[in-house]
Amino acid sequence: MAYQWDFTPVFANADLLAQGLVNTLKVTGTALACGLALGLVLALLRLSRLRLAAWPAGLIIEVFRTTPPLVQLFWFFFALPLIAGIEMTPFLAAAVTFSIQSSAFFAEVFRAGIVSIERGQWEGARAIGMTHGQALRRIVLPQAVKRMIPAFMERAIELMKTTTLVATISYADLLFAANEIAQKTFRPLETLTVAALIYFVVITAFSLFARRLERRLAVSGESTVH
Amino acid sequence: MTLLAVSGLAKRFGGNAVLAGIDLDIEKGERIAVLGASGSGKSTLLRCLNFLEIPDAGSIALDGKLVGRGERELVQVRQRVGMVFQQFNLFPHMTALGNVMEGLCTVRRLARPEAQARAERELARVGLADKTAHYPAHLSGGQKQRVAIARALAMDPELLLFDEPTSALDPELVGEVLGVIRALAEEGRTMLLVTHELGFAYHVATRVIFLADGAIHEQGTPDEVLKHPKRERTQAFLARHKEFSL
């Protein structure tokens, strides 16, 4: 007998899904914002000529890039209270984990972007009397960020999907909500399909926005080709 | 009066001594052309004078004051010793106006309207009053180099360093850049110019220096060095350069 698709139970629980989506966006947004800021700091530390700064930054980056995000999440949520007595809500644990985790990836994107800028740009800036910091902020980073947009975008999409792991610490994100509805209504196929559709729509909208941004920025700054 | 006093300047890259003890006093108002075969250390000499390369040995005094190595001090010196590069090194994400304003706003901390007025004057001086809104990608090589000159001029440097400013240009664009440099010479600006344009050096420079193996091999007036070189390597260099001239 053919399977009878029935989406009505899903729509009946639309409010749960909506709340789940909001929670997913909260974790993803926080992790993106904090990850970018922290990632820039890590990248600059790693590029620093001071070994004492470069080495620890490199260690943090490598640890968080190479270990499974699920384990990282468990460290912050379950292990940290045991070891250090630091209790975190599921949201905070998720936000902290994914902020640091994505900062490790963003740091490498920043670093690649910064070193891809020709030496002549640094020299042009220094020749008019800029400090290293001014050259970085005014000349190198604005150009580097433009080149980094595709990699950032890729990482942000990856991040949004990785945040589905928060269900394991009972944070009610979109996938968690979908699972609840599925169990309640015995309609897992319909619910999970709708959830996937929501991910698809949100991520596609984000990609389109990022691509448009990239194109707009590309208009002004071509290369330094002579 | 001596503006820049260089003494015992040395620079090595790896095992290679690029500058092997340069002594050079640059007087206010002097226009010095630096010649030499490739690898003779011309560019490195220039880049040491504004500390884009940090010399390994020797001293540089600006206006009688010895220059140290701290960033704060180097930043001050670089504002007083401007540089124009062979490859322009314009900032591609800024318009011509933005390029010239950048030093005024970020380094000098001028208010934007003031910086803009100043930048527009400098661009007009190099004949680019109508290109202020153009990004470097939409300018010809000669125009880019003129923007770069305006960018350096905006900082009011006491000494201008030109590192082969026309070597990256198509031949038909060389003239417009040399014209601007000549106009600056006529204003009495102090400048040091690394160039392969011997004719230009002859007519514009007040002194010509010939570098070989990282040392000053011969120097004198343009007439002495370019027309009546005394040393064999200078003669050979000039002969090579004249081989194909008409």
Descriptive notes:
The complex is a heterodimer of chains A (226) and B (246). Chain A is an all-alpha fold. Chain A has a single domain, classed as MetI-like fold (Orthogonal Bundle). Chain A is built from 9 helices and no strands. The longest helix of chain A is centred in the N-terminal third of the chain and has 34 residues, at 14-47. Chain A is flat. The termini of chain A are far apart. Chain B has 246 residues and is α/β, with parallel strands linked by helices. Chain B contains 9 helices and 10 strands. In chain B, α4 crosses α5 (141-153). Chain A binds chain B through residues 120-121, 123-132, 134, 138-139, 142-143, 146, 220-226, and chain B through 50, 52, 71, 75-76, 78-79, 82-83, 85, 87-93, 102-103, 106-107, 135-137, 141, 144, 148, 151-152, 154-155, 168.
Layout: helices, strands, pairs:
The complex is a heterodimer of chains A (226) and B (246).
Chain A: H1 8-12, H2 14-47, H3 51-66, H4 69-84, H5 90-115, H6 119-127, H7 132-162, H8 174-185, H9 188-220
Helix pairs in contact in A: 2-3, 2-5, 2-8, 3-5, 4-5, 5-7, 6-7, 7-9, 8-9
Chain B: E1 2-13, E2 16-27, E3 31-36, H1 42-49, E4 57-62, E5 65-66, H2 71-80, E6 81-84, H3 96-107, H4 112-125, H5 141-153, E7 159-163, H6 171-186, E8 190-194, H7 198-204, E9 207-212, E10 215-220, H8 222-227, H9 232-242
Question: How large, in whole angstroms, is the Cα Rg of chain B?
Answer: 18 Å
Number of extended strands of chain B = 10
The oligomeric state of the chains shown is heterodimer
Low-pLDDT stretches of chain A are none
Tell me the number of structural domains of chain A: 1
Largest interface: A-B, 25 and 32 residues
- Apparent shape of chain A: flat
What class do helices, strands and sheet pairing of chain A give?
Answer: mainly alpha
**Helical run tally of chain A:** 9
Q: Helix-strand pattern of chain A, N to C?
A: HHHHHHHHH
CATH architecture of chain A: Orthogonal Bundle
What string, H for helix and E for strand, traces the elements of chain B in order?
Answer: EEEHEEHEHHHEHEHEEHH
> Fraction of residues of chain A in helices?
over 70%
Superfamily at the CATH H level of chain A?
A: MetI-like
Beta content of chain B comes to 25-35%
The main β sheet of chain A shows up as: none
CATH topology of chain A: MetI-like fold
Query: What Rg of chain A, in angstroms, do the CA atoms define?
Result: 21 Å
